[in-house]
Amino acid sequence: MDTPLIAGGLLPLRTERGLGRLVTFLDAVVAIAITLLVLPLVNLLGDGSQDHDLGALLAAHQAQFGSFLLSFVVIATAWLSHHRLIERVGAYDEAFLLLNLAWVLTVVVLPFSAQVIADFQTQRLSVGIYVGTIALNSALGTALALLVHRRPTLRRGGDAGHGSNPLAPLVTTGLAFLALVVGVALPAVNFYALLLLLLSRPLTWLIRHVHPQDLIRRVHPKTER
Fold first, then answer.
1. pLDDT at residue 3 above 50?
2. ∠ CA(67), CA(69), CA(73), 5° rounding?
3. Which single residue of 101, 137, 207, 208 has CA 20 to 30 Å from 171?
4. Which residues contact 104 (CB under 8 A, 6 or more apart)?
């Protein structure tokens, strides 16, 4: 059986079984990474912890619990976004494979980044490592979305690509890198810069629904006749 080719006939599409193995591998790695987040917390209750007040122990390690919760949300959000994209994919090529491996590498690094912020908290380098990892993960997810958007042969049969507009991930990635710059440049802001990511949906909606000429008319209504 001949293997179909992507646009341009340069790289063969792989089998559906191969795609299934790739997705299973990625899901397993993400599951392991998200599990690793809790191990430092388990170590807090090691030998001798029963000799200390539990409330005092938890209060003394607030940073670790905070980094755990934040990192859990980050990895879960990244996986959900990736899952929505994969649901539309019916085949893969070398570029898709390599981008996915790069994407999952940033997921694997996140538990390390979480421990960095637990130990070094709001130091500029720790903020840069953590937020930078998130920004890179978002950028690779956006690259995957663009790849699927531009290569129809990667999409499942019957998917015309109407829902593949990569605007939302592009906006999210832009905000992630803005958060990186703000968080590192302004020590008082540090990880609060990640709140910029909450603007992703409203900004995406604004870009999709508000035409630039409409904005000009609102700012300069006297220019209309």
1. no
2. 115
3. 101
4. 26, 29, 30
